[in-house]
């Protein structure tokens, strides 16, 4: 089996998550979120994000993103996002199909939106021929592994609210962002004015089951029906809840994310003395982006799984996870250097 730096989704399930699923696999409990374990997780999310936070489980990250966006929009609205955003590049048009909204991509060099970039798209309000801007959507961490500061998120939230819009955060790797900076979920999300969050765990040791976190009570009124229509209501909710109990209660999320981040930092440090490899983005979470000589790419892929991000310049992405080891990185670096000789 090839060693994988392709995605943090390629890792297995953390043993504590598996143990929690097994522990909660007993007797009978009500389905569809009416079980005591789901209710326990709802309280855990309030502890992490504040008393106004309401959590709903979804099957996967695309589901969580689409549900968030649907809760914030009507079909005549537009959603502004980075041109590298997962909702724009990697979700097969699901946000547009399910919400009916137009996605407006904004070109960025580092995956991060700024108020200045967004303002260029804030036009056509009240003009019936144009889709009406309603949501700014950002990713934390971004698709390039870069991070927003709380100040930067707050500025985007203020801009959105100034125009009667919402701010959505795709937080599939929010754990990595928080572990990297020591900034809490509340400081990143609740205190900055975010309205809706897609909160991920699958990339950080869970089996399945992402979460929608709505930070405004008025957004929850119809959400149960939106989720049901979207086929994202999981009947045996306790098994998603069991994972989040293990994930959140003793900060397993932080332990896993810190390790993944440290492995990416270690990989980047190992590459500093390799002149033929150019790291293209700051390594702020668990991703390393680099340009490598095209002549070695295919041969390196024979031994290690990773993705070519930009074929024109042979930019590649190497992802680390909670189960990545220094030994696997050392082997990877050794193989890469051998091919460069």
Query: What is the third-level CATH name, the topology of the largest domain?
Result: Aspartate Aminotransferase, domain 2
- Please report which band the strand proportion falls in: under 5%, 5-15%, 15-25%, 25-35%, 35-45% or over 45%: 15-25%
Q: List SSEs in N-to-C order.
A: EHHEHEHHEHEHEHHEEHHHEEHEEEH
Structural class: alpha/beta
By DSSP (H or I, 4+ residues per run), the number of helices equals: 14
Cα-atom radius of gyration = 20 Å
Uncertain runs are none
Spatial ordering of strands, largest sheet: 2-8-7-6-5-3-4
What number of structural domains do the residues give? Answer: 2
CATH top level of the largest domain is: Alpha Beta
- CATH-wise, what's the superfamily of the largest domain? Type I PLP-dependent aspartate aminotransferase-like (Major domain)
- As a percent range, the share of helical residues equals 40-55%
Name of the CATH architecture of the largest domain: 3-Layer(aba) Sandwich
Characterize the overall form.
globular
Question: Total strand count, please?
Answer: 13
Mean pLDDT across the residues is 97
First-residue to last-residue Cα separation: 25 Å
Major sheet attributes: 7 strands, mixed
């Amino acid at each position: 089996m090839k060693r994988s730096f392709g995605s943090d989704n390629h890792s297995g399930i953390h043993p504590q998550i598996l143990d929690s699923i097994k522990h909660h696999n007993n007797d009978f409990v009500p389905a569809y979120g009416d079980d005591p374990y789901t209710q326990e997780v709802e309280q855990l999310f309030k502890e992490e994000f504040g008393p106004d936070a309401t959590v709903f489980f979804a099957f996967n990250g695309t589901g969580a993103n689409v549900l968030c966006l649907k809760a914030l929009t009507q079909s005549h609205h537009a959603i502004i996002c980075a041109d590298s955003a997962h909702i724009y590049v990697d979700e097969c048009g699901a946000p547009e199909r399910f919400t009916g909204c137009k996605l407006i991509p904004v070109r960025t060099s580092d995956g991060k939106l700024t108020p200045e970039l967004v303002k260029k798209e804030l036009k056509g309000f009240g003009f019936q021929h144009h889709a009406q801007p309603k949501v700014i959507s950002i990713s934390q961490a971004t698709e390039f592994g870069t991070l927003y500061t709380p100040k930067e998120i707050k500025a985007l939230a203020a801009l959105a609210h100034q125009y009667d819009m919402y701010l959505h955060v795709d937080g599939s790797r929010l754990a990595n962002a928080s572990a990297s900076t020591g900034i809490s979920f509340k400081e990143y999300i609740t205190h900055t004015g975010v309205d809706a969050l897609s909160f991920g765990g699958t990339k950080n040791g869970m089996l399945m089951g992402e979460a929608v976190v709505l930070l405004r009570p008025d957004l929850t009124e119809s959400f149960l029906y939106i989720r049901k229509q979207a086929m994202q209501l999981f009947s045996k909710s306790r098994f998603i809840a069991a994972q989040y109990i293990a994930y959140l209660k003793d900060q397993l999320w932080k332990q896993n994310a810190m390790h993944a981040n440290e492995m990416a930092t270690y990989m980047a440090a190992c590459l500093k003395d390799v002149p033929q490899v150019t790291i293209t983005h700051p390594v702020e979470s668990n991703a390393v982006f680099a340009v490598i000589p095209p002549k070695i790419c295919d041969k390196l892929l024979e031994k290690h799984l990773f993705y070519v991000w930009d074929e024109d310049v042979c930019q590649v992405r190497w992802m680390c996870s909670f189960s990545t080891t220094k030994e696997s990185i050392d082997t990877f670096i050794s193989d890469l250097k051998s091919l460069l000789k």
